[in-house]
Design a protein that fits this description.
Elements lengths: L13 H15 L4 H6 L3 H14 L7 H15 L2 H13 L4 H4 L13 H13 L8 H11 L1 H24 L6 H4 L12
Helix pairs in contact: 4-5, 4-7, 4-9, 7-8, 8-9
Length: 192
Amino acid sequence: MTTTTRVPLAEVNGIYGALVKRFSKRRFGQVPESLGVMWHNKAVLKDILRFAGSSSKWSSCDAQLKSFAHMAVAAEVGCGFCLDLGYFEAHNEKLDTEKAREVPRWRESDAFTELERDVMEYAVAMSQTPPTVTDALSARLLDQLGAPALVELTAFISAANLASRTNVALGVKSQEFSTSCGLKPLATSSTT
């Protein structure tokens, strides 16, 4: 396999490696390159996987909203891997894939509700340096979602930034998971 990652892929081996590869193949149909990159520091990999597993159990905020937020972060940061994986996961979780494929052009698309737009705006605002979240946007989301869901959404967006920025910095690219399950290509924004 040819890779374009900035850190060479490590051999994913041992008992833990076999388990992770088996899980990856079952879930994604292949082993993500990011696994080979992160294998260089198994403690970091384990903590990231543990956090991802824990955060997947959070239930105060709607899964579809979190999915759109994660994909909006990926589009903003430029992480093709996370964007494609988010689209693939939306399909696997039986979320609205027609809307999910529109996330890269959410500002132009008429597919989204005002709440969904606010969530993606919040995700993008949190992804700026420094963050550009406004009191008005926070108040709208607090009013519509409630405090527990807004706290969860905020933490979820922070985790999406961790994943997206890590993958971009390490040179991890899309592996076209969504193509493998026959999804239409992701929409593209006219501003990109």
